[in-house]
Amino acid sequence: MTGTYWSVLLPSLISPFSIYLCRVFAESAVPDEILEAARVDGAGELRLFWSIGLRLMLPGLVTVFLLQFVAIWNNFMLPYIMLSKESMFPLTVGLFSLLNRGAGQAALYTLVITGALVSIVPLVALFVALQRYWRLDVLSGGLKG
Q1: Which of 2, 30, 105, 134 has its CA 20 to 30 A from that of 84?
Q2: Do 67 and 22 belong together in one domain?
Q3: Residue ranges of the chain with pLDDT lower than 50?
C-alpha cells in the first residue's frame, strides 16, 4: 500500500485518544436518568441513540472531529514516508519540498510563507463554522440536582 493515499488515510481514521475522549465525554454528558426516562416512555435503543445520546454528545463529537481534522491536516511525517510521488504530497509536505528546492532563492521563501498562510484558511473556516456546537452546560435545566 506504500505510495497510495490509503497508506496515509487508513492509519489516520482511528485514534485511541479520540475513542477515550468520546467515552469520557459520554459518561459525563449523557445522564442515566434521561436514558431511563426515555425507556419508561417507550423509546427503543436506536431511538435513545439517535434522539437523545447523539444530540447530547454533539459538542464532544464536534471537538473530536476538529482535533482529528487538525491532526490529519498538519500531518507531515506519515505522508513524507509513505508517498513517493510529489504530485501526491499534501500541502505540508509540498511546502517543505518547495522550501528545500529553493533554499538559496529568496523569492521562494515568500511563496512558502504565503502557502502556509493560505493552508490555515480551511482550518479557520471549519472552526468558525462549527463553533456553535460548543455550548456550556448542554443540560442546564434538564435535571434537578
Answers
A1: 105
A2: yes
A3: 137-141
